[in-house]
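Encode chain A's predicted structure.
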Amino acid sequence: MNKESAYLLLNKYITTKSLLNHSQMVAIAMQAYAQKLKKDENSTHNWWLCGLLHDIDWEKYPEQHPNYAIEHIFPEIELPDEVQHAILAHAPSRTGVIAESEMDRYLFACDELSGFIHAVSLMRPTAYDGMKVKSVTKKLKTLNFAANVSRVDINNGVELIGEKLSDHILFLIDVFQDAKQKNLIN
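Encoded structure for chain A:
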């Protein structure tokens, strides 16, 4: 599945700008990590695809997410098994699937934190530009800020990828600053 057809599929199931932006952010984060880990072009594309489509069924089928996508959407497009497994593993409490592969672990690590960093950006006049790790970690300690974002999942995610939280935050801030400058995200 190429990028154009992936975007067409995503827009068939998601109409809210915030969820489309989140999907794009996670796709960009996954692609950046694949490049950092020196994945080949095909693997890097699959990491991007995984990030883009991980919440495809969230808007229309939230109670069945992500199982609806696995059972009803992905069979029609022949999404690679590794991508489907990572999408299942990003919601282990719903699917019973735990993160095993590198792709699984990075999707889990990027999902919640990407949403949280976006929430922080909305509170700043310069969005991602000039954002500091310290400001993100301070907001993480404010439990009523972006209260729906699981701090437990964020911490589990950094453990899964073997990174320090501050390093993971810095990497994502840099990725999102660049993406914002290129008008790829809001």
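The mean pLDDT is 96.
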